[in-house]
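#onboarding

Welcome to the new folks! Below is a worked example of what a typical request in this channel looks like: someone posts a single protein sequence, and someone else replies with the predicted structure as tokens. Don't worry about understanding the tokens yet, we'll cover that in week two.

Example request:
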Amino acid sequence: MDVQLLGPLAARLHGRSVVPEAAKPRKVLALLALRAAQVVPVPVLLEELWEESPPASAMTTLQTYVLQLRRMISAAMPDQPVAAAKDVLCTRFGGYLLNLGTGASDVAEFTHLGAMGEHALALGDPDTASRLLRDALKMWRGAALVDVEVGPRIGADLQFLAEQRLTMLEQRLDADLQLGRHAEVLGELAALTSEHRMNERLCEQRMIALCRSGRRCDALLAYNKLRKDLATDLGCEPGKRLRRLQMAVLNSDPALDARPGRRPRLLLG
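Example response:
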């Protein structure tokens, strides 16, 4: 089975969709697909479906949803016995497991590419890192599971994926800055710092890109805006790392003009 979760929910077996129309069976499939090859305990499924107020018939209803999913899976395997669906959506002690077999998951591919990109960056290979991280980020087709009613368990998993996505984006921008692509990422960083206005790492990257583009004053304005937002909303100052960068900009520190392919000293640590 091939599943796509980084956008609208899609699950296909032998080219046929096995995504149900009804909201609650979709949630069951989505949660099992998010945790493919792992046993999802029954209490976790019940919490996702009904949060803290499951009906008296919750267990029977969950089993009905599983049966509906298995029927759709079976219909996508007309040459296989009906029982074969149980090898795809498996019953395990205390819960259920979705077995993708040789199929693909966009979440698994996203995570794999991101880990390879992070490793390449750590090894000092920004070109490979940028390519791999771009490929990972391209796996997203919009908001994850945008067409699924999200409960507490799916919501927690999606928050984790969103944090992963932002981290990979920051790493890809680090790689691009090392490659001397400061002019190329300026527009992207302007949008990102507007969306994540108190993210110090993105502000740091934007300040460096602005300095390398001959816009030192704009870099200082970006710092001042972040400082004002932090003081107004949280009553705190930027971290030591960003304050150090501000001083480097004020002093025209040569480290800001690191050659392509070398990680600037100010981005270390």
